[in-house]
Amino acid sequence: MEKVQIKLSPASHQYEIEFCNLTMSGAWAKQNLPEAARKTVIISNRKVFNLYGETVKNSLEKVGFEVFAFLIGDGEKYKNFRELQKTLQFFSEKKLIRTDAVIALGGGVVGDLAGFAASIYQRGVAFLQIPSTLLAMIDSSVGGKTAVNTAFGKNLIGSFYQPNGVLIDVEALRTLHRRELTAGFCEAVKQGAIASPQLFNQTADFLSNYPVKYFRKNFSNTTFVTDLRRLLAAQVSFKAEIVVGDAQESADRIDSRSRKILNFGHTVAHALEKVTAYKYFKHGEAVGYGILAAAEISKTVAKFNQNELKSLNDVVKLTGSFPSAANIDVNEVIKAFAYDKKQAGNSLQWILLDSIGKPLILQSENIPSRVVKNSIEKILRK
Ligand SMILES: NC(=O)c1ccc[n+]([C@@H]2O[C@H](COP(=O)([O-])OP(=O)(O)OC[C@H]3O[C@@H](n4cnc5c(N)ncnc54)[C@H](O)[C@@H]3O)[C@@H](O)[C@H]2O)c1
Ligand SMILES: [Zn+2]
Fold first, then answer.
1. d(CA 33, CA 18)
2. pTM of the complete model beyond 0.85
3. Ligand nearest to the CA of 186
4. Residues 339, 156: contact at Cβ < 8 Å?
5. Distance of CA 43 to the CA centre of its chain
């Protein structure tokens, strides 16, 4: 089975991402947690816990852990202070101590909130991630960013906190909703596009060999499961490489391997989510539109060529169908950039492509605003 090592410094921040079955989670936890760990709290939501909670709990109990479960509400709106506070209260009631552990079992919402709770409870307790969505497996569980949302914006309060280990069981994707798969694959295409022609082609080949609409049925095919695991391991390795090189996303770096490049497609994606009040698109679907818009801009202001643009369009199409963006006003989208702008010190940084695998970061002042407008318009009207 695949393993990906995250070689951060200091060495105490290093950990492994292990691809194995959920029934192994007890033995895996034992291996990755401090010897003194006795209690574990699984943080999940009802939907995911009903599907996989008992398997994980039994496996942990079998190796001697005392196991508690705390379930938060399902959805982005529960990634908030109230739920965080209830989670911390639960740790206190169960008398968790510094050597005990928190285990996130779920998608990015659960992972971000559980990670943040683990990072601040008693100034940090051990933390394990068992991501259960495609997005969480290839993106949010790797890299140590944790957060909750506030009324002022998403992910405004959080910490960098590396887990002690991540377990990925690809079989858990069997139950994931079709739209969540599409959203996750859009992030995979994003990572392929900025990483290398190799990762891009591996992602494209996987999607053309195994259409997303037959995803569930394909689990009876062992080659599919092996290819899926290999693809996710390659995706995770790429994200790990970027994170190791720029763990805390240095504000002043603008080179092609800075952590910022992971935001390829996200300027437009965040704006699309904002103008639709975060209710219409799944984040990854908005990223699908966003990477096409950024690629279109790249064709005019960078060296990105027509053939590569076509391949990118074709691969995004393979991830599945998207909610229509035909009625979205492009001027509203551009206005919504204001938020990302503030985050970057009042100047927007665009992640563009010179070619597949060669991202570049450009200040918005260096891109004519009509190019931005026309490119977004073209993508939304497709
Ligand atoms: N920390 C990071 O670096 C980072 C990176 C990217 C995204 N994020 C965060 O991740 C969050 C999005 O994560 P997400 O896309 O996983 O969404 P999510 O956690 O809301 O999960 C999506 C849906 O799938 C359900 N689900 C989860 N696993 C399932 C399974 N195996 N079978 C059936 N249903 C399942 C969930 O209950 C939920 O309804 C956002 O809050 C975003 O800010 C964080
Ligand atoms: Zn994203």
1. 14
2. yes
3. 2
4. no
5. 18
